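Write out this protein's structure.
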Amino acid sequence: MDDAVVVATRRGVVVHAGAARLEALRDELARRHTIRFRRFLERDLLERVQRDIDGGTFAPRADAGIAEELCLEANRANDVLTFVMNSPQMYELVRALTGCGEIKHFAGRIYRFDPRVPHHDSWHDDTSGGDKRAAGFSLNLSREIYRGGTFQIREKTKPEDVVEIENTGGGDAFLFRIAPELQHRVTSVDGVYAKTAYAGWFVEK
């Protein structure tokens, strides 16, 4: 499904999917645990965010036992994307696709996997902590096509059956299920170019 399902612009978020398309996406999410949103971020908005990122500072961030990455410190790009992801249209779309309850907020960060800096992301399920995470979301903000950095998700009882997404298109995004029976990770980045992405969770009330 390559047509744009939802588009975030300077004027707001627009959902293009009708009832039949949403049903097909729900089925795909239930079967593969992840769905892609191509061209999620409109080109003008993507370029604005990338310029803000270029002027920002990345600092090492470690999530003990799970991941090590570079994380963008306070920056206008974070503010813009937080506003986009916490729009009523995004909440309604995610509820329609996942069947989750009322969404309280989206919590995200801009991170970077730079092949020149050691980093890792191990298998985990994102169910720890005090909040109830309904679904995860990742948006590619990279200027170049990076190598590696593949998102993988699998059922814990079927570790050999891995679903992968190569999300290298600028402004492309994907949604993925979070559940105790699932786990996911992002593979290492190698080559010349870094992977920069905005990722986080829709949190239920």
